[in-house]
Every structure is written in structure tokens, then in C-alpha cells.
Amino acid sequence: MKLHLGCFHKKIHGFTNVDIREDVEPDLVDDVFKLENVENESVDLIYACHVLEHADRQEAFTAMERWFSVLKTGGTLRLAVPDLQAVFEHYICHKDLKMLECFLYGSQKHPYDFHYSGWDFKLLEADLLKAGFSSVERYDWRDTEHFYVDDYSQSYLPKISYTSRQKRGIIEGKLMSLNVEAVK
Questions:
Q1: Which domain holds residue 22?
Q2: CB 59 within 8 A of CB 171
Q3: I want to staple 176 with a disulfide (CB 3.0 to 4.6 A). Which of 3, 62, 155, 164 is the partner?
Q4: The CATH number of the domain where 87 resides is what?
Q5: pLDDT score of 172 more than 80
Q6: ω into residue 82 within 30 of 0, thus cis?
Q7: How far apart (Å, rounded) are the C-alpha atoms in residues 118 and 105?
Q8: Could you tell me the pTM of the whole model?
Q9: Separation between Cα atoms, residue 49 and residue 124, nearest integer Å
Q10: Which residue blocks in 9-113 are alpha helix, DSSP H?
Q11: Which of 128, 38, 116, 131 is nearest to 78 (CA)?
Q12: Is 110 left (phi over 0), alpha (psi -120 to 50) or beta?
């Protein structure tokens, strides 16, 4: 089983798409931080793209522990969050906070769309290791089975552009998403 947590309107074929909002018509309605409807050690892969930052620090850590428990031994957590190091570097270089607001605060378009936590690689790695994960490494979104889903794991400033639904587009700018994989 593969879970896509916080799917919103972006469903991934071959995954169980999970969201707390019934109106986005997920495969499974559940709180992605608690996964009350998922059995322990039943999942091969969890993909959570720009979801974890919507929890406060304690809730985020508890979610990491829960995700660890639902994964099978050897299972993978593929996690993407705003990369605060990249955000701060971009601000220092360009002095344009308006462009960075969504990475810092969320889009704030609905009650679940606010950010409460943030990470750089060092802090995220430490949290994942403390939750029980091992082998925390960055991943390239282009090398995943869901590369075609235009989501925040592909957030570049100023842009990424495609001539079609191709795997490798023309990338300009800096990746603003911290994309990591951790193994149970």
C-alpha cells in the first residue's frame, strides 16, 4: 500500500489518496497526522508533500512517530516541506518577502492551510531519526514514480517550465522544497 497524505485535488494513481477534507473527494478521509483508519505496519510508502508544516512542533513530531508505526519494516517515508534555509537565502538575496509568504505562512485559503512549523535539513533529519527512522537522505522529485504530479516538491523560484508533460523541464532558480526520504 502507498499513501499520499494531504492529497487535496492532486490524486496520484496507484496511491491511496488521503485528506481530512471530504470535499476534495480523497480515497480515504482521515487526519493525516493521526491516520486512525490505517493499520500499523501495513504501508510500503508514505508520500507527504507540504503537509507536515501545517502541524505545530509537537503534533508534527507525533505525526512522524505515527507514520513510522504504519510503515512496514523497510518502508519509506517520502516527505517534502518548505526548505527554510532556501527561503532565508532567497530573502537575503532578493529582499522580497511577498514572494516567500506562502512558504512561511501557507496560502491561508482554508482553515487547514496555515503553517505552524518549519525545518532545514539538519532539523528535519534530527526529528526523523528521533522518531525512529534511518537513512534520511534528500531525493530528487524527478526520480519518483509521481514526478508528473505538479506539486510543491517542485517549487522553484523563480520558476520551472515544461514544454509538455515531460519528466525533465527547464529549471531556473532555486528549489524551495526540502525533499527527503527516510526508511523504517
A1: 2-183
A2: no
A3: 155
A4: 3.40.50.150
A5: no
A6: no
A7: 10
A8: 0.91
A9: 14
A10: 57-70, 84-94, 101-105
A11: 128
A12: beta
